[in-house]
Amino acid sequence: xxxxxxxxxxxKGVNKSKTKNALHKIxxxxxxxxxxxxxxxKFSLLIIIQGMDASGKDGLTRDVFTSMNPQGVNVTSFKxxxxxxxxxxxLWRIHKEVPAKGMIHIFNRSHYEDVLVTRVHELIDDDIxxxxxxxxxxxxxxxxxxxNTQILKFYLHVSHKEQLERLNExxxxxxxxxxxxxxxxxxxxxxxxxxxxxxxxxEHCNExxxxxxxxxxxxxxxxxxxxTIQDTLKGLKMKYPGMKKK
Length: 246
What we know:
The chain is α/β, with parallel strands linked by helices. The protein has one domain: Rossmann fold. It is 47% helix and 13% strand. It is globular and about 60 Å long. The protein starts with 15 loop residues before the first helix and ends in a 12-residue tail after the last helix.
């Protein structure tokens, strides 16, 4: 897979207004499906969101999940590991945050940072990276086969041009200035290296498949992610449990 060959925008002819209306209907359905997931308590859903800075991870989380019951949804944003986390294996902090049955957990960035940013900045070598990717596959297989966890992995595929435009907005718009960090522009200069290692992740970490989501237009991005979640939950053929016996 070569990311440069994959479009970052909605296909020509896709109607923005109709797509946003379809998204609204999907979100209403997701609210009911999430309630059903929680009530039945047989499955869980782990949603992994990856992407470059300014690809829209926070906005996606807000647009798709705020209509759901907050008792059944949890969001974790993984930052730079703490001293305690570094004293354990790299998946230790991740395993603590996976969803229990009935729950939906969203990872805004994830364990994949440990084979992406660490490689870009040469904190680990290729041999360690390969071992970590194997561990990730084993970890995800464990969740799928032993805990009925459905795993959806989304890469928000924004173009480099669009990313730079969004980063520059953070210098101008008061409502976005709080997101500004000079490091974001430094990381943007490493775009090609990030793309290389993302492509390796897509190739080698497929215990759960990746969904490459065009992310230059937020309305289309949110629609695709919401539709994928809807289809996944409907595919579980869930039913409300009967009345509990005394």
